[in-house]
Amino acid sequence: MDCIFCKIIAGAIPTKFVYQDKEVIAFRDIEPQAPVHILIIPREHIASLAEVPESKSGLLGHLVAVANKLAKSEGIAERGYRVAINCGPEGTQGVPHIHLHLLGGRQLSGMLG
Ligand code: 5GP
Ligand code: ZN
């Protein structure tokens, strides 16, 4: 198992979860780009957004619902926030386990904000 996010899920890299359920976990980014920067990932190893089969599109809805829930509990829902999924080399995806970035708590700008 050389996927860093699978190691986090397995508890091999001690990480505080800010949310967890049967399918999904969330934890704070190690290099936060904003006051709130949370990663939301499925427990199942899926390498990227491009690898999600249509039959599992419900999982994407669930990941987004968790992002919305966390935006509320982090107190950024009213002010606004960004949910981003980087996909593949030119999409600047660094970790090959699909993840949503929840970013907020400051004025974001541009696409990279
Ligand atoms: P990507 O560039 O793949 O969209 O985002 C990967 C994110 O994972 C980066 O923002 C990076 O800071 C974060 N990250 C990488 N390794 C770890 C880790 O071991 N722990 C945590 N909490 N975040 C990580
Ligand atoms: Zn993985």
Total of domains: 1
Low-confidence stretches: none
Q: Can you summarize the main beta sheet?
A: 5 strands, antiparallel
> Major sheet: order of its strands?
1-2-3-5-4
CATH class: Alpha Beta
Q: What name does CATH use for the topology?
A: HIT family, subunit A
How do the SSEs run, as a string of H and E?
A: HEEEHEE
Our measurement of the CA-to-CA distance between the termini, rounded to an integer number of angstroms, reads 33 Å
* Name of the CATH superfamily: HIT-like
Average pLDDT rating: 96
Beta strand %: 15-25%
Structure class? alpha+beta
**Mind telling me the C-alpha Rg?**
14 Å
- Any idea what the shape is? globular
Number of E-type strands = 5
Question: What's the architecture, going by CATH?
Answer: 2-Layer Sandwich
**Helicity, in percent?**
10-25%
Total helices: the number is: 2
Structure description:
It is globular, with a radius of gyration of 14 Å. The termini are far apart. With 113 residues, it is an alpha+beta fold. The model has no long low-confidence stretch (mean pLDDT 96). Strands 1-2-3-5-4 form a 5-stranded antiparallel β-sheet, with helices on one face. It contains 2 helices and 5 strands, in the order αβββαββ. Zinc ion binds at residues 3, 5-6, 45, 97.
Topology diagram in text:
Elements: H1 4-10, E1 17-20, E2 24-28, E3 36-42, H2 57-73, E4 81-84, E5 100-104
Antiparallel strand pairs: 1-2, 2-3, 3-5, 4-5
